[in-house]
Recover the amino acids of this structure.
């Protein structure tokens, strides 16, 4: 039986990516789309300035877009995917959860809330059970679950592997694609022939979200990981794919060979959108590259370059498709995890 789903913020860049991933999905059936008041009441074809690299799905184009209000979404929708701006999500996502809907959200609001699961399924799927704490504390019949920031999710699967060596300190410098800022986020005059050495709020997200993701859940709360994380985030003129330079210090000695073997052995999950291999390790020092490697495993894989030894640990580069694995695809994976764990 198909799970009936809806997309909140369906006309935006991540909302369009969600529709692209959900329309052929083996478990999910798109049954509702919402957007701003200016789009409500129009067909999706007319409301969305479609910019994804495939046509609008036939079954979606004629759906009438509704307002982003719990009263406007059919009661038989089982799961909502949210790509709302955080300022909007902060207000309306709790309203949907209170109305009984389960919301898998890419929006940044509430990611660090004590009772909100922040989840990468292959890394900390056990944190999903924070839903029970959330429901007890807030009196909700529904639930709110988050995926992390696009730059965080690129790095953390590799850090989860390194934690087997006793992860103590992480320094990361990012080279982030312009699509991470949204279609109108960075002007061409600003980014062409240029690098922007600051992305507002991005460094703090990497430094905090990674510690929550790698924390221990004891059944009632998450104790954040004790590692130190320092991030420097830069916008570069690539369209898709965040490339990150990572330096990691570990308690135990970790040779490059041992780390690469551990990366290759990193286990995935048996979810419909799970990559065949969570982490792909390249031997070529010129890889990974955004243009060549961002679409590994349909954009759900993590690519890692050769591991090098440093005086205190290891250094490597990692890459992920920021609007698939780093955004829409992450929300879909969390939705699949909710089904797998019988929350839906």
């Amino acid at each position: 039986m198909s799970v009936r789903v809806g997309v909140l913020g369906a006309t935006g860049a991540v909302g369009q990516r969600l529709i692209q991933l959900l329309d052929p999905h083996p478990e999910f059936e798109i049954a509702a789309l919402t957007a701003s008041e200016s789009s409500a009441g129009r067909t999706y074809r007319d409301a969305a300035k479609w910019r994804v690299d495939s046509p609008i799905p036939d079954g979606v184009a004629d759906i009438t877009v509704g307002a982003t209000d719990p009263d406007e979404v059919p009661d038989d929708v089982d799961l909502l995917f949210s790509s709302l701006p955080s300022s909007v999500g902060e207000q309306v996502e709790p309203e949907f959860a209170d109305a009984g809907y389960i919301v898998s959200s890419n929006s940044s609001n509430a990611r660090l809330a004590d009772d909100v699961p922040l989840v990468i399924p292959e890394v900390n799927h056990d944190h999903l059970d924070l839903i029970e704490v959330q429901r007890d504390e807030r009196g909700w019949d529904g639930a709110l679950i988050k995926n992390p920031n696009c730059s965080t999710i690129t790095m953390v699967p590799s850090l989860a592997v390194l934690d087997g060596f006793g992860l103590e300190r992480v320094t990361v410098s990012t080279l982030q694609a312009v699509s991470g800022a949204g279609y109108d986020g960075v002007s061409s005059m600003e980014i062409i022939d240029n690098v922007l050495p600051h992305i507002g709020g991005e460094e703090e997200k990497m430094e905090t979200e990674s510690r929550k993701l790698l924390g221990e859940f004891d059944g009632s709360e998450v104790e954040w990981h004790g590692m130190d994380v320092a991030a420097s985030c830069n916008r570069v003129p690539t369209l898709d794919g965040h490339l990150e330079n990572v330096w990691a210090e570990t308690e135990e000695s970790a040779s490059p060979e041992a780390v690469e073997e551990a990366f290759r052995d990193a286990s995935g999950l048996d979810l419909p959108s799970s990559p065949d291999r969570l982490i792909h390790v390249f031997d070529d020092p010129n890889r990974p590259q955004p243009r060549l490697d961002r679409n590994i495993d349909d954009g759900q894989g993590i690519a890692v370059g050769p591991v090098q030894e440093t005086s205190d640990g290891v250094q490597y580069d990692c890459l992920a498709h920021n609007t698939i694995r780093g955004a829409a695809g992450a929300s879909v994976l969390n939705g699949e995890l909710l089904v797998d764990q019988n929350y839906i």
Summary: The CA atoms of residues 79 and 211 lie 28 Å apart. The mean pLDDT is 96. The two ends are 12 Å apart (CA to CA). The longest strand covers residues 167-176.
